[in-house]
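Q: what does this look like with molybdenum atom bound?
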Amino acid sequence: MSFVTPGFGGLRRKQQPDLPPGQYLAHDFPVLSAGPTPRVRTDRWEFVITTESGGQHKWTWDEFTALPSEDVTVDIHCVTKWSKLQTGWRGVPIDTLLEDVETAADFVMAHSYDGYTTNLPLEDLLDGKAWVAYRYDDEPLEPEHGGPARLLVPHLYFWKSAKWVHGLRMMLEDEPGFWEEAGYHNYGDPWREQRYQGD
Ligand SMILES: Nc1nc2c(c(=O)[nH]1)N[C@H]1C(S)=C(S)[C@@H](COP(=O)(O)O)O[C@H]1N2
Ligand SMILES: [Mo]
């Protein structure tokens, strides 16, 4: 004897979301900051790319938001084990910001208005893999989550996505940022569970 429960589309299977190892699904959006939230006014905001020879490329808020932007839907993974699937952002691709920047650097240090830093290989910011994001969920990005603008590098643990980002510094040699200095993994691939040094 078999029982069939009719429902929407028949049998409901419990869908296991596609999460990296050790992660759980968060339904809220946790706020994780090492210090207090800086309030950065957009009329004083600027974004600065500094090359290894000291050359600078700068954008005011109006110049930055006039650049072509993309709407992206991505999964994000925090080293403290929460993940959020299908988050919606608008941002300027790093490719666009680097268009006129001449550099031989292989590494980048992201610098934030709160003094936070995080290091990344330059290639992890290229080819549509990273953005400076300024809208979340169809709203201006809230200060708690890094507004006016934050780095968004969803394929790495979320500590690499510097909130209140102020600029990028091109580096010929790799250097550790804030959490990397404190023992977090230098690269931080959630699919290889690279949480801490030695992972
Ligand atoms: N400037 C700055 N960026 C930061 C941080 C920070 O303390 N300062 N925390 C990082 C960490 S550890 C995580 S997990 C994410 C958290 O982003 P959220 O608060 O929007 O969830 O921001 C990252 N970017
Ligand atoms: Mo984090």
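Residues 4-15 have pLDDT under 50 and may be disordered. The first strand starts at residue 24 and ends at 25.
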